[in-house]
Amino acid sequence: MKPALAISTVVVAVLATVVVEETRIKSLQEEINRLRALPPPDAQPEAGTAPAKTGTPGAADNNSEDPAPVIAEGIRNVPDSYPAPDTGVIQKNALSPYSDLHYELNLTNKERAYFEDLIAARNAKLREMAARWVDALPTDRPLIEKEIAEFEVANDRRIRDFLDSDADFETFEDYHEMQPERHMVEQLRPIMDQSGVALEIEKERMLISTLHEARKATSGVDWNSLEGMQAIVAGEPEKRFDEEWDAQTEFLGKRLPEFLTEEEAEAVFGARIQLKETMKDALNEAIAMVNGTGE
Description:
Elements: H1 4-12, H2 21-37, E1 49-50, E2 70-71, H3 87-94, H4 99-104, H5 109-135, H6 141-163, H7 166-177, H8 179-194, H9 201-217, H10 226-234, H11 237-255, H12 262-290
Antiparallel strand pairs: 1-2
Region (Disordered): 36-69
């Protein structure tokens, strides 16, 4: 058998594949497009800064330069001791899977960095607990599942406290719920690129939302989760995967033409056919690992 950590790498990311370099380029292009869409400086202060103070009447010198912008402190609950992010961290967070959420919640650079740390800590802890779940006896797994559920509740509370807003926490929950679909689109994108089809940013977001609707409408499993691991040990996971995939394909066949051209829809379906084979291979490996028959 492989060590528990190696097993958890497969099981926690059951259907994850390597995101090729085109994904990074696409993400960077999205960031560039987003920045281009911002109003000019005289129409809106730069994100993360406060407007320059004008001073008291009569105190300013006509020949003096305007004061430098003051970095905004933000409105979220970030510990006073938390350091300001450097340029490298800011650039990394701009390509985060949660970068769109950063903008939607109007987080400052410091708030983005702290939020990303919360997410990274959450993922690391879930990986550690998943490793123990895989290595545990079947009779001990329910206790670990309870521990995972309790941890997720506590972690959600930390994120809610950080955001300091029930409405913004609901926005986070909705966004986080669609992470499996964002990951799927990241894998579909380079396959579609090979066929010469690239979706506009807004269409890609609509595709993510529609994929999520398809999963929910068909009671589909998020295989990259504890739910996915439980589905594996429940029996016949390959059959369930195929049935869910076919049902979701039927759902997408009705919905994608509502916002995609015929060429774009065909490219999505063609990419899904290729991706399915990769996902089935990963699923079969995960089944072997969870059942203790992997190398």
